[in-house]
Every structure is written in structure tokens, then in C-alpha cells.
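User: C-alpha cells for this one?
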Amino acid sequence: MMRLPPFRYIVARTAREAATILADHGPEAMAVAGGTDLLPNMKRRQFEPKILVGLRGIEEAEGIAPNGGLRLGALATLTEVAEHRSVAARWPSLARSAGLVSSPPLRNAGTIGGNLCVDTRCNYYNQSEFWRASVGYCMKKDGDICLVAPGSRVCWALSSSDTAPVMISLEAEVTLVSPQGDRRVPARSLYGPDGIRYLAKRPDEILTQIHVPAREGWLMTYRKLRRRGSIDFPILGVAAAVRLVKGRVEEARIVLGAVHVAPVEAKEAQEFLRGKNLDMETIEMAAGIAYKPAKPLDNADLVYSWRKRMARIEVARALRELAGLPTGDLPPLRA
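Assistant:
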């Protein structure tokens, strides 16, 4: 049985107080809300904080408020987001992505803010302490090389958030609170350059709010590839959103998850779609462009070359879903 290491638990009353505690204690302190990722990582000794700062009592990070745009408190559970009627009606890709995270019990505890900040994953890293010690530690924890790419100077652990690609595709922003003040930044700027520095926010910053703009007239969806129909992290996520004017694509957003250390925007495919009809030929060409930035390695479930090919297939399926063309899956989601 894997047990939690000893730690001290401090309940923060405000985001500023939580950020101040994190700043005062430095690397020895970590924030915890739902704990569905943090606590298993602590049991495996991937995280070894001496202090956990509890965020559950922070009122400014609670609630779901659809009023024109959408304001999500970072402490809203994934179940609350997935089952909220206004979210499902107006931002259906967000509701779907939240509803596809893990399993019902963990969605009841896990938060939307936690999923946006969830740790990167790798087959060589997400193992017990005993396993990692036996094969040699990787650079993400206690070692000095990337075991999946030994010649690399950076960690290639994969972004594993379901909701991050959707937030980027919807051009959401997040509020970060630190001891010095608040700042509001695009969700796309939240992610760092490698699997170790996977978040660009400072360690003493608390994510309190997510702001999603109104998306009336947009079609949107999220598709998730994993071995099982529940529990598993994504080995591919595709968030797609388009705005059609007189049948032609006025704007398009395609964001891939679990194919790199951070969500990947398929910018060339987005530009290719602009001004075109969303027909079968255009969709296949766009998918052929969109999958190229995907850089899966042999550090997640299933064969990486197959996962690379599936990026093209799933982008095409997502765009066909938005166009109302047959996919063999769910009907298109409309805002």
C-alpha cells in the first residue's frame, strides 16, 4: 500500500492568503483543492511538499455564472461544469470535456482549475517510487535524463488536461492571484515550455477564475481518445470550434491535447479553413495540415505512430461533426 508522506495542512481563507503562504514557504508548499492528481502523486513521491495549502474555503474561486460570457470559479467541480444547463447549451465542448475527465467519483471531487493545471504525464514518471528507483529516475523527478528521449535537454512528459484545449479553442482567460496583486491572462499563455515547467504561472499564484467569452453562432466539439471509456487520461484530445457565415468558415479554432508538453494550436489549419466551405474535401485537407504539429513519443498508452495518425483522423471527425456530416458518433454540438 502506498501511503501519503507527512505534511502540514493549512486552510486559506482568501486567494491572497493562499498565495502569501506559498510565497513564504517556497518549494516546500503546494496548493490543493480536489486533490485527485496531487495526492496520488504524493503517494508515489513525485511531489513531496511539507505543507499543503487548502483552497476549498476561498469564496472568490467558487461558482458558475453565465451572464453574456461565462465566469467559472476555479473550485467548481468537473461534475458541476459538465452538468450545468447553461454551460451545456452555450459552451457544449466545455461541458463535454469536463464530463470526459476520469470517472464520476473523481469528477465530483476534481475541480476545473485543477484540471487546467494538472501535471504532465509520462510512462516513465507516473509509476511508484519503487519502480522509478529500479529503472533509474527521469529528469522530471530526481534524475538528469529524459528516459523517453535520452538525448533531449527538456522533459517530454505530455500535457494531460482535457479542458485546456477547449479553453484555448474558446479563447478563454484566467485570473491569477499573487501576493503582489491580480493579473488576467489568456488561457493559452498558462502553459510552459516543457514537461517540468509545464505551467507558465508563478508557483505563488493561485488560479481563481476562468472567463469564457460568449460564443453564439459557433459550432464546437471536443473528442477524446483513450483505451477505456472512462478513468483514463487522454492520449489525444481534439477541441474544434468554427463560426460559419453563409456556409463558409469565418473563423476556426483547432487545438490538440496530449500530443506535446502543452496544448498545440493547429494555426496553419485554422488559416487554411478561413473562407472555405466545410465540405468533405476541405475537411480532409485541413486534417492533413492540423495533425503535423502533433509530436507524440513512446511515453503514453498505445503506439506513438498510431497516435500520430489518429490525430489526423480525429481532427477530421471533429470537423465532420461540426459540419453535420456522418461520423458514426454523437450529433454536432451547437452553442
